UniProtKB/TrEMBL annotation:
Keywords tagged on the record: RNA-binding
SUPFAM superfamilies named in the record: Alpha-L RNA-binding motif
Lineage top rank: taxon: Bacteria
Originating species: Convivina intestini
Classification via InterPro entries: Nucleotide-bd_a/b_plait_sf (IPR012677), RqcP2_N (IPR048443), RqcP2_RBD (IPR040591), S4_RNA-bd (IPR002942), S4_RNA-bd_sf (IPR036986)
Official protein name in the record: RNA-binding protein YlmH
Domain (RNA-binding S4): residue spans on this chain: 187-249
Pfam family, one: YlmH_1st
The keyword RNA-binding belongs to this UniProt entry's keyword annotation: yes
CDD domains per UniProt: S4 (cd00165)
GO molecular function, one term: RNA binding
The keyword Manganese appears for this protein: no
Length: 264
């Protein structure tokens, strides 16, 4: 088995705490012959978890976010002889009923209202909408259903009621983005964002300084931050991207990278 130092050399320092959490999960599964259900993980965390579980013998790993195209997904780590089902992931779907004639909800409003109630972001999955972005749904840890329905009664200025729905009624992700292949000098976030959205690096640096760029839902603090496979970068007013693959270097020593890109 690889040592901690050998494992950590493949990841960023800000990911070491999550790696320690994963290692603890793996120990508990192996020692107690039990399954572990994780909170909702972003794609980068899913990638890290998959990488570490692949080093283990006799374990299985399954992901589920409530819908096939989910971005945030829960994982189950279990001995390979366990039988797993959809119900084991403990995901519920909540619909939002509100007076649409007088109000227009946004994804940021919904997330803000739920977090303001004191809930952990890791307990929340994807926020879904219909094609007109007038009807909204929220995937959540099923243990939160009662709390949300009883305590979150306003989103912005709108009075809301929550409907508990079967997962079969979840909206599909409407814009799955398109794949783009890019040659890059490095995977610095300012360079990546500039290349994908056709901006200068100085403009991107200013946007980062203004808090307009996020990595995996957290505000990016440094223009020289280096991204990795699975990272999601959101750029306000422009869109978002996720690094899918890195397949070596070109003859001119450029990094060959493929991104999933959604442009606003």
């Amino acid at each position: 088995m690889a040592s901690d130092d050998q494992i950590k050399q493949h990841f960023r320092p800000d990911e070491f705490a999550f790696i320690a959490q994963v290692e603890d999960w793996l120990r508990r599964v192996s020692l107690d012959s039990r399954e572990i259900l994780t909170p909702f993980l972003n794609p980068r965390e899913q990638y890290i978890l998959s990488s570490l579980v692949a080093r283990q013998k006799d374990l299985q790993l399954a992901f589920n976010g409530g819908i096939v195209s989910a971005e945030a997904r829960r994982a189950i780590i279990a001995p390979d002889y366990f039988d797993l089902s959809q119900a084991d992931f403990e995901i519920s779907l909540l619909g939002i009923d509100y007076p649409q004639k007088f109000n227009h909800l946004r994804q940021a409003d919904i997330l803000g209202a739920v977090l303001a109630a004191g809930l952990d972001r890791k307990k929340l999955g994807d926020i879904l909408s219909d094609v007109n972005e007038s009807q909204w749904q929220l995937l959540v840890d099923q243990q939160l259903v009662s709390f949300i329905t009883q305590n979150v009664d306003h989103i912005g200025n709108s009075k809301v009621n929550w409907l508990v729905l079967a997962l079969d009624f979840a909206y599909d992700k409407l814009d799955a983005g398109q794949e783009e292949f890019v040659l890059l000098a490095s995977l610095r976030i300012d360079l990546v964002v500039a290349a994908i959205f056709g901006l200068s690096r100085q403009v991107v640096k200013t946007m980062i300084d203004q808090g307009l760029v996020r990595i995996n839902w957290a505000t990016c603090q440094k223009a020289d931050s280096v991204i990795d496979i699975g990272d999601i970068i959101s750029v306000r007013h422009y869109g978002r991207l996720r690094l899918l693959t890195v397949t070596g270097r070109s003859k001119k020593d450029k990094i060959k990278a493929t991104f999933n890109v959604i442009k606003r």
